[in-house]
Design brief:
The protein is of the alpha+beta class. It has two domains: 153 residues, Ribosomal Protein S5, domain 2 (2-Layer Sandwich); 105 residues, Alpha-Beta Plaits (2-Layer Sandwich), CATH 3.30.70. Helices cover 29% and strands 29% of the residues. It has ten helices and ten strands. Strand 1 and strand 2 form a beta hairpin. Helix 1 packs parallel to helix 2 and helix 2 crosses helix 3. The radius of gyration is 18 Å and the shape is globular.
């Protein structure tokens, strides 16, 4: 019997880079909030120890499939196997965390389905080896994040409606974080400064200089509400009080870009269940 699990997208409500570590990773501050756009993962347990994953993602080599890598990480604790099917709804390369979310949901689902009884902290440590964004999806709560993104403090936020715009390009996270002109010395802030909107995305200036379509989309969306890059992009977003407000702006979206409306969520459906 197949079991269904959801893997939500996320937004970085701001992103400050405070320093660069000796190992090349960046220390940052950010706030993660989920949105109600989800990939759908189906799991069918098998007893022969074999692992397989079929994804609707186009041209995804098995060795690059983070879902399969997550399953292999947990297989050290069991002799069971699994067949996984992934329905991709979250745009790839958009800064919405789809791959990390899929990996986290795989760890959560198989921990349950394989009856491993590993703690959330153990799953988060395993997930960190797959990507810096995986732990927040494991913990499943909107969070203030520091370190490389793995030091998390759950927070409760308003859950506005977001208009998310994809300018039609894909951004290389490695390219942006390795850019010589990236700001890496932003002064750390405290929660009250975030609440007072004294924040930005340090990657925006670098992304604008390399991806003109993203800069154009940011300028367009800024006409209606403060626009922000999520992660390193390519997606941008702005918050609105109601679905109707977001819809009115989306109706004016230029045809050359894609967009969708999603509500912010503080709790991930991955830990709620389906």
């Amino acid at each position: 019997m197949q079991k269904k699990y959801l893997a939500p997208a996320k937004l970085n409500l701001f992103l400050h880079i405070t320093s660069r570590r000796a190992d090349g990773y960046h220390c940052l501050q950010t706030v993660f909030q989920f949105i109600d756009l989800n990939d759908v993962l189906m799991f069918r347990i098998r007893d022969d120890g074999k692992l397989s994953c079929k994804s609707s993602a186009i041209n995804l080599p098995p060795e690059q499939d983070i879902v399969l890598r997550a399953a292999k990480l947990l297989q050290q604790y069991t002799n069971l196997g699994v067949d996984i099917e992934v329905e991709k709804n979250i745009p790839m390369g958009g800064g919405l965390g789809g791959g990390s979310s899929d990996a986290a949901t795989t760890l959560l689902a198989l921990n349950h389905l394989w009856e491993l009884n590993l703690s959330i902290d153990t799953l988060a440590k395993l997930g960190l080896s797959l990507g810096a964004d995986v732990p927040v999806f494991i913990h499943g709560h909107a969070a203030w994040a520091e370190g490389i993104g793995e030091s998390l403090k759950p927070i409760s936020l308003e859950e506005p409606w977001y208009l998310v715009v994809h300018p039609g390009c894909s951004v290389s996270t490695a390219e942006i974080f390795n850019a010589k002109d990236l700001t890496r010395n932003t002064k750390p802030i405290i929660m009250s400064e975030f609440i007072a909107a004294q924040t930005k995305n340090d990657c925006e200036e670098v992304v604008r200089s390399r991806y003109p379509s993203i800069g154009q989309a940011l300028d367009w969306l800024n006409q209606y509400s403060q626009a922000r890059l999520t992660g390193t992009g390519a997606c941008i977003f702005a918050a609105f009080n109601t679905y109707s407000d977001a819809k009115k702006v989306m109706n004016n979206l230029p045809d050359k870009w894609q967009g969708f409306i999603a509500q912010g969520k503080n709790i991930s459906p991955s830990i709620i269940g389906v």
